[in-house]
């Protein structure tokens, strides 16, 4: 009955009471008190009666069709009364039905009244039926409830952005706010796709709006403002002014050719600048890719900073960038130091975040010291960092020193050529059309394009080799690097440490902790599982693959898991009172804990073995007893440490001390100082970090290239020697005994003169501090070296900034390390560092190749046109022909030479001396002799070509144009290997070069044979084509001869040209 009632109401939603503006809901609840249910039933008795009446009437009205088929429903009730008609029987049937229904309802009410006697147990069951009726669909549930509707977003944003701490109290503190954001402070958010989408829809994405990038036509407009273009534009109207001499048609044709050449020049300049701008933007985008550690669903994972959502629990460590606005968790036990609001104020002030009144973390800050966890409260444009970054436009492409030198070359050419022509036209018959043609021929506008193409190609190929360039100028400087100061861990080694030895007292433990006293095992568990940056504070279970701390911490925690140490159990039974984060200067970290309800405080230290040993006055035995460390025992421990170092192991020591709890060390005191004296040595751990595969070969390649490798490490001096020998940095006893290995303290205590005298002989610096590494870089730069530094930790930041090139090795490195570097090596491989240096040399070499090629074309075309114009009044090459030559030089030639890859020969040369002339002696020799040959041949053809070939003037001019172009094609081969006799070596490795040569030759055939009106040429027969190829191929012979005598002395004019043109 109750189910029928519920169904009846679901059919008539308009009869239900209103419970909201959008949805109408009816809840029919049956409680233990059956009276209310019975009353509800009798209130609906009349409705049920009407329902049955309605059914009966339908049955009566439908009797005629049934009767027509021979069926009479009245006979079911009145079968033996022949006096009644069919209509009377139907009305009596209706009456009997209604009466029976009323009796049934009355009996049902009596049954409910007698329920205690008849159904003592059945009807006591609690139940309810809920009907959710939507006014739009007539029923069904509504799941579109807006998530986080009870969160005041304005106050949530202003909490950190406007520093409104009073809002935090209104949210119920950090715990109350986390509950509102549906976040578990230990396990983080749920983190599934639906949860992340809801948070992004409600609170926004952690991105910011950027101003639109400049389009291609912007750079086209800027190209018309170049000096080159302005000079040609000023001269071009003179073509229209000389139509009386040459005819209007020819003048208009020449004028159109000049305009077309302007468009080509502007287009090439715009393409170069546009590509460089896009390259700069892509580098900027790559540098903004930051990954941070978050806890989602109880598991730690790394995500992009752009995937951070409100409610995330983020783990911060030294050097990280705060990814969003938020609140520090675990106050007062957590302590983080950030660089204040330096991104807004410009001041690098450090702020301690360690109390309930100072727990605000601002997006964009850098963690300067310690580590902690934060709860994200605002992201993206809801932060001050997002607003500032959105107002920041796209960075302009900064010119490197080499690019600035290349950009100055066209200006010098224009100035000198224009001044010369203005003087010549005063007393020689050089017409205006020839003047403009000569100016066009003199402008080497392809230099900026070749730099952009080569830089783009090098950066793209280095990215494929897991090398990301943050600063384009670094690619140029890499060709001049003379010294690499390499960090050992993570650069020369795999950075995958593993515990190889464990000493307890004077015994080497090879069977784990099974034979160790339980109390000592418990202390080891505390020292390993709690005194770590990986999950110090009440974190969920951590799998081996989820460790995100330093390699040393990973190795020790992995060793603990192999020994079946239950980390969760230790963390649950112990309370962390204070943490001393690892200090690179002190080389140790400490922790203060209380176990359960004990009235004793445990102090645990972990760090460099020699440093910890100095703090200890006793040591634990395997049995659990404690013995004092006398002078003899201390010497034995030091020998053990040295023996492990000789095997290339990094030695870590653990110590412990127990003190009674007093008011002075109560955990209500935030800033506690851990005692350092009279510690008890728990054990020694030897960590092995094997060298990278191929590192010795990469070191040898750098040595052959004139690059000196210096290893800088904080390890023991004996361990540093062993690793240096394994990596190939130290190769002989001569180097070992020739002051090649020093300690940081020793180097620091040298006088300035001693340091400058010994700096070149030092190969390894052990026991070094960050200041020692910085001091070495400064000394090397003062001595004239170009220094590259590799680093992956916060302690390398100063040296990375000071160096000429900073390599951040490893994607796991801190964000501040990446920002301090010029290049990021993603795969932690020193081989990639050596390969990057090869690409730097390739960039410089490709630019030199193009300079030799283009200057040969410019000098020869300028000389030919100038000499012929002086003697005949007209230039032999038309503007369209020069336009085609410029296309070969600037576009096709640049593309062909820019795609050259590094070769072994490049890494056999000495480093490029900074600011040396771009054009070497060998290049000048090839350039001048090639230009002299071309000028000589073209002058002979210009004045004697008709008689030599027996052709008319038109074919003679076509021959000059054809030979001139083919000479440049052959000279393109010479430019590939300037200074080398074999110009064809490795030619098939650059397929693009072969394709460009083929395209150029085909287009030249089209220009000569089929573009007669455009190029002003005549068709040539096969003999004339063979002659053209023969004259052009002589350039190969000239290049071979010049390269054979490349050491020929240079006269004063030669040196003067180098000085003027560079």
UniProtKB/TrEMBL annotation:
P-type ATPase A domain segment(s): 291-390
Every Cation-transporting P-type ATPase N-terminal domain range: 172-236
Organism field: Nelumbo nucifera
Top-level taxon: Eukaryota
Gene: LOC104613241
Enzyme Commission no: 7.2.2.10
Claim: Metal-binding is one of the keywords in the record: yes
Membrane-protein topology: Multi-pass membrane protein
Pfam families: Cation_ATPase, Cation_ATPase_C, Cation_ATPase_N, E1-E2_ATPase
Keyword field: ATP-binding, Calcium, Calcium transport, Calmodulin-binding, Ion transport, Magnesium, Membrane, Metal-binding, Nucleotide-binding, Translocase, Transmembrane, Transmembrane helix, Transport
Gene3D superfamilies cross-referenced by the UniProt entry: Calcium-transporting ATPase, cytoplasmic domain N (3.40.1110.10), Calcium-transporting ATPase, cytoplasmic transduction domain A (2.70.150.10), Calcium-transporting ATPase, transmembrane domain (1.20.1110.10), HAD superfamily/HAD-like (3.40.50.1000)
InterPro entries: ATPase_P-typ_cation-transptr_C, ATPase_P-typ_cation-transptr_N, ATPase_P-typ_cyto_dom_N, ATPase_P-typ_P_site, ATPase_P-typ_TM_dom_sf, ATPase_P-typ_transduc_dom_A_sf, ATPase_P-type_domA, HAD-like_sf
Described function: Catalyzes the hydrolysis of ATP coupled with the transport of calcium.
Example of a GO MF term: calmodulin binding
Protein name according to UniProt: Calcium-transporting ATPase
Catalyzed chemical reaction(s): Ca(2+)(in) + ATP + H2O = Ca(2+)(out) + ADP + phosphate + H(+)
Transmembrane segments: 47-71, 227-246, 252-275, 435-457, 849-870, 882-899, 919-943, 955-973, 993-1010, 1022-1042
Keyword Iron in record: no
GO CC aspect terms: membrane
Subcellular compartments: Membrane
Family label: Belongs to the cation transport ATPase (P-type) (TC 3.A.3) family. Type IIB subfamily.
Domain Cation-transporting P-type ATPase C-terminal positions: 875-1043
